Amino acid sequence: MYEQKTKPSDDSVIEFIEQVDQPRKKEDAYRLLDLFTETTGREAVMWGPSIIGFGKYHYKYASGHEGDAPLVGFSPRKSKISLYVTAENVSKRDEQLSRLGKHTSGKSCIYINKLDDIDPDVLKEMILSTIGFLEKTYPDGIE
């Protein structure tokens, strides 16, 4: 049986951020912690060893695969900061990304070098639209 690797833990978010080696990245992590907390109204929780997540939803795919994931989150990784946000559709995501600032992106992850490279108001908008999309998609699985 499949066991989900990335799960919420009782590990300290502050202790995790304090272990970030690069001073600039550590400062950005604290700024992102404030931004995500303020925008979501939810407490930060460590997911796995390196993701700071906010809220939680339970997903179940048609294949039967199911699990839990944070609604939104971020991780101050060694090379770049990962932002875990998504959008209801590709055109909305593309439009938001066009206004975000300097970044690269994957399917549900955005990578930035530093927080000053992006527009925090657009990130807030993306956080809220991600939560709205997930609340609509998984109405019974949101915490």
Describe the structure in brief.
This is YdhG-like domain-containing protein. It holds the Pfam family DUF1801. By secondary structure, this protein is of the alpha+beta class.
Task: Describe the protein in words.
- The two termini are about 25 Å apart.
- With about 140 residues, the chain is α+β, with helices and mostly antiparallel strands.
- It has 4 helices and 8 strands.
- About 35% of the residues lie in helices and about 20% in strands.
- The longest helix has 18 residues, at about 25-40.
- Strands 1-2-5-6-8-7 form a 6-stranded antiparallel sheet. Strands 3-4 form a two-stranded antiparallel sheet.
- Strand 3 (about 55-60) and strand 4 form a beta hairpin.
Write the layout of secondary structure elements.
Blueprint: H1 13-18, H2 23-40, E1 44-47, E2 51-54, E3 57-60, E4 66-69, E5 72-76, E6 81-84, H3 90-100, E7 104-105, E8 110-112, H4 120-137
Antiparallel strand pairs: 1-2, 2-5, 3-4, 5-6, 6-8, 7-8
Helix pairs in contact: 2-4, 3-4
Strand share of the residues? 15-25%
Compute the CA-based radius of gyration.
Answer: 15 Å
- Work out the helicity level: 25-40%
CATH class: Alpha Beta
What descriptors fit this protein?
six-stranded antiparallel beta sheet; 8 strands; 143 residues; 4 helices; single chain; YdhG-like domain-containing protein; two-stranded antiparallel sheet; YdhG-like; alpha+beta; Aspartate Aminotransferase, domain 1
